[in-house]
Design a protein that fits this description.
- With 454 residues, this protein is mainly β.
- It has one domain: Methylamine Dehydrogenase, Chain H.
- Helix content is 3%, strand content 38%.
- It is built from one helix and 33 strands.
- A hairpin with a 3-residue loop joins strand 6 and strand 7.
- The N and C termini lie far apart (53 Å).
């Protein structure tokens, strides 16, 4: 048996043996951000407390760490010349009008989950950027994805790359860069499902959704999109009526079949910039957008089985397929989370709201985080708690349930844009320059897990 085949078989075996402990895409395998309770997942930490290891990640990237077995994968871009450094807070204006200066190196890193040691790295591309990007973003803004056998890395304005888990590059598909709204650049992450890697690239010139063969990289299908200002990650929704690909958009929220044909759509009067990603809970798909400058910042709960146009002229309450709708219940950057029977929304300017996830009824209105902070990363949850990471690196621990209560605050004191990843008993938090592996070494595996809702 040759080495490549042996490594491939070992990777498949490792994944099958520990599938529940993998983190395979943005917000986890089911895209909800909710992790299984585990006795080693702590409530409190700092730069030293409950930290198993810290790994330096050269360059800049905002993709979440991907976890397969005992391997952690992240992307980053290094520049040979100094460029504008990202800062926290809202940028109410244009992007960087010119491409970043100097030769850049688009990198893929693999670390050991247990020690934080670098296992391998690969330079996917070297050259000068040809498009600008948002001043707070990166040329490595997307979270990779994996099917447990291969790693799929998207650099949105550059190309899609496929790796064996041991670091061997299997194939690549270059992407023709386009002008994006206000020169913000790409950011939508890829997803993989049943042998297809699905990519959305909304821009001002030639927007599309496409699927690439996971084994060969060959494009299977491509469908044009009448969109210009969406950065939401697509969601493969497996429900009791079938499997579909849900994509949020300013002009229309749409569902596609697995061969790229549109199944349903509706104009949700979405905000002018669509960033939060769809996800499912309680048998419904949640879609939202909430640019801070817009009056209408909606959240929709969609039922499965829809076909065609599901809402006309903004009459969302009359739709048979929209279970409920809230006109002002969405954040700008972060994706909401449903934990138990509650939907939590974390707003960029430092507030949280809570709604009944089944009915849309408000449970509590805006509650301010203290100390104050701004937010881009999406919340996550486990052990009866919702965790919210500010751009200043402070994690607020919120008690799940109908009352807003801050249980703890955990500082890392560095810019944090990335949504953290959770696998088994380890929480990975990516800062501007490092990855922290947070875990409780004193925990007992016999501890009774806390309920997911209180």
């Amino acid at each position: 048996m040759n080495r490549a085949l042996l490594l491939s078989l070992l990777a498949v075996w490792t994944t099958a043996a520990s599938a529940a402990d993998n983190f395979t895409r943005f917000r986890g395998a089911d895209a909800t951000g909710v992790a299984d309770d585990h006795p080693s997942l702590p409530t409190q930490w700092s730069k030293t407390d409950n930290v198993a290891w810290v790994a330096d990640v050269p360059g800049q990237g905002w993709g979440s760490p991907i976890i397969v077995g005992d391997r952690v994968f992240v992307t980053s871009v290094l520049a040979d010349e100094e460029n504008l450094k990202p800062q926290s807070g809202l940028y109410m204006g244009l992007g960087v009008r010119d491409p970043a200066k100097g030769v850049h190196h688009w990198m893929v890193y693999c670390f050991d989950l247990n020690t934080g040691e670098e296992v391998w790295k690969h330079e996917a591309h070297t050259g000068r950027p040809v498009v600008p990007r948002h001043p707070k973003s990166s040329y490595a803004a997307e979270t990779p994805t994996t099917d447990g056998e291969r790693l799929y890395v998207l650099f949105g304005d550059l190309g899609l790359y496929c790796y064996q888990l041991d670091g061997e590059l299997l194939w690549s598909q270059m992407i023709q860069p386009q002008k994006t709204n206000m020169d913000y650049g790409a950011a939508s992450s890829p997803v993989v499902h049943e042998g297809q890697v699905i990519v959305v690239y909304d821009n001002e010139e030639d927007s599309w959704i496409a699927a690439f063969d996971a084994e060969t990289g060959k494009q299977r299908w491509r469908t044009a999109r009448e969109e210009k200002r969406s950065w939401a990650t697509p969601f493969v929704w497996e429900n009791n009526a079938g499997t579909e690909i849900v994509v949020a958009g300013e002009n229309a929220n749409r569902s596609y079949s697995l061969d790229g044909k549109e199944r349903w759509s509706f104009n949700g009067d979405m905000s002018m910039l669509v960033i939060p990603s769809p996800f499912a809970a309680h048998g419904m798909c949640y879609i939202s957008s909430g640019y801070v400058g817009d009056a209408h910042r909606p959240t929709f709960a969609i039922l499965p089985g829809a076909e065609g146009e599901i809402a006309v002229d903004g009459k969302f309450e009359d739709s048979d397929w929209i279970k409920w709708y809230q006109p002002q219940a969405s954040s700008y950057n972060s994706t909401q989370i449903v934990y138990g029977d509650y939907l939590y929304t974390v707003y960029d300017q430092g507030f949280m709201t809570c709604h009944n996830a089944l009915t849309g009824e408000e449970v509590y209105d805006k509650r301010r985080f203290s100390p104050k902070g701004s937010f881009t990363a999406s919340p996550w949850a486990y052990d009866g708690k919702v965790f919210c990471l500010s751009e200043d690196g402070l994690t607020y621990v919120i008690k799940a349930g109908p009352k807003f209560e801050i249980l703890a605050t955990n500082p890392l004191d560095e810019l944090c844009i990335t949504t953290p990843s959770v696998a088994g008993g380890k929480l990975l938090i990516r800062t501007l320059s490092q990855i922290y592996c947070v875990t409780d070494p004193s925990s007992s595996s016999e501890r009774e897990p806390a309920p997911s809702e209180r």
